[in-house]
Amino acid sequence: MLKVPEHQVAGRQAIDGKLGPLIDNSGHFYKPLQDDDERGTGELTFYHSFSSNTRIPHHIRRFFPVFYGTQLLKASDGSGLRPHLVLQDITSDHLNPSILDIKIGSRTWYLEASNDYIQNCFHRDKTTTTVSLGFRICGLQIYNESGFWKPERKLVRSFTADDVRSVLRMFVSSNVGPEPDFCFADSVYGGCDGILERLMELKTWFEDQTMYHFCSCSVLLLFDKESFLKGKTPFAEVKLIDFAHVVDGNGVIDHNLLGGLCSFIKFVSQVLADSKGSTMED
Amino acid sequence: MLKVPEHQVAGRQAIDGKLGPLIDNSGHFYKPLQDDDERGTGELTFYHSFSSNTRIPHHIRRFFPVFYGTQLLKASDGSGLRPHLVLQDITSDHLNPSILDIKIGSRTWYLEASNDYIQNCFHRDKTTTTVSLGFRICGLQIYNESGFWKPERKLVRSFTADDVRSVLRMFVSSNVGPEPDFCFADSVYGGCDGILERLMELKTWFEDQTMYHFCSCSVLLLFDKESFLKGKTPFAEVKLIDFAHVVDGNGVIDHNLLGGLCSFIKFVSQVLADSKGSTMED
């Protein structure tokens, strides 16, 4: 029983007869391989390389969705059988997860890409926060008292630095509106098991690894308020996703991802600091 | 008594009737303010802001040339009196300094620049190591047994990642050729007072500071082999130079410079590690 993922916030969706990913009830995420632009091939190549790479530390492997191979499935666009990547469905253990999909790096193109691809990315990077902040929010859903807030793609693309700060505040608040209560900031962003600590672990690895350059990949933050309130763990997760444009690092660190990651870490740190300031004022 | 700097390795030079910087015998470097493209104005604005900024830690201020104000001087191109920035001449205490000028960042343009400027930089960034490595060597001179090696600008622009590694090896060797002796690697790159430690200090600051974005600025490495052999200090220096394109950080870290700096640090670390490997084999 395959179905359209309920909690997909960015990327191509399997709706209106289009090609997109599917999920099942046992925690698998099926991502169709693209034949038009070698994107799918690129991602499969990466997963094969990564899963057999013995130089990936165990604590870093946890940041990546589990890869179960490929499977021929009826594609969501009705075009018949098509190979799909079989991946871990990151949202499967969560009822109402808040999710941020953040494309990391101040450049989403790469030298090996076609000129058209470079020009398209170059334009999008300049007109979103990619160049200015070193990352951009690609999609999100935030669960709160009144249900999910899931803004349209067009609105997300128009986000400014201040919008990003607002989103990061809302993500860890129980209320909506201009005065976030930062209710979950300390537990979700702070602490030795919080999102900031996870991001710092990633940063340390990216300061050193020279095997892969992760162009146009995303950090996905997930926070399940209900799991947290019921004392279930894990209630927050950090994953890396979307590896269609991973290229060989050739002995050079992924300075593009690293710079963007450091900028994002600074944003999260500032929201955490703001939350402490706001609590002290109470 | 003003003269053309002997140890300038990059940038516009005051030769053949062109406009360029001058030095005197008392350690001052006079950089002409440009009137054609606001570059000079940009750099003066930065030095004014930076020198009165009380949030710059003392240990970070040391990385910047001392700023003594401006002075009207006869320009080197014979065009008459022109305002010049008066800066510290970093090379003045050294007889035969080896120098590397490394433009840091995988992007030398910035959103506020004109379209022509962006397109020019974009092209240069793709065709040098700027995009691939996150930095490019802009100029260099290396002093060794046979005098200075100071390659032409055209050759420097064609450098690959392997050329960069060779240059970093030569910089700390007493000989030339394909088998560098790494003679000074440990003292110059390593140790608690070495170049790597200085670069790490800068990195820590750039992970935090959100006041300035240093577009198209350079890290200058200087190493004076003769001072070292005679036991004089300092025999090696790390400076930041060229601030014509510094823009407001607007509360965001300089992720472009930081990423490039981390990549450069990894290159230097690898050369230091190679040098230890080579010594152990001996």
Automatic annotation (TrEMBL), chains A, B:
It is an enzyme of class 2 (transferase). It comes from Gossypium tomentosum. GO terms for biological process: inositol phosphate biosynthetic process. Its EC number is 2.7.1.140, 2.7.1.151. The keyword Transmembrane helix does not apply. It catalyses: 1D-myo-inositol 1,3,4,6-tetrakisphosphate + ATP = 1D-myo-inositol 1,3,4,5,6-pentakisphosphate + ADP + H(+); 1D-myo-inositol 1,4,5-trisphosphate + 2 ATP = 1D-myo-inositol 1,3,4,5,6-pentakisphosphate + 2 ADP + 2 H(+). Pfam families: IPK. InterPro entries: IPK (IPR005522), IPK_sf (IPR038286). Keywords: ATP-binding, Kinase, Nucleotide-binding, Transferase. This is Inositol polyphosphate multikinase. One of its GO terms (cellular component) is cytoplasm.
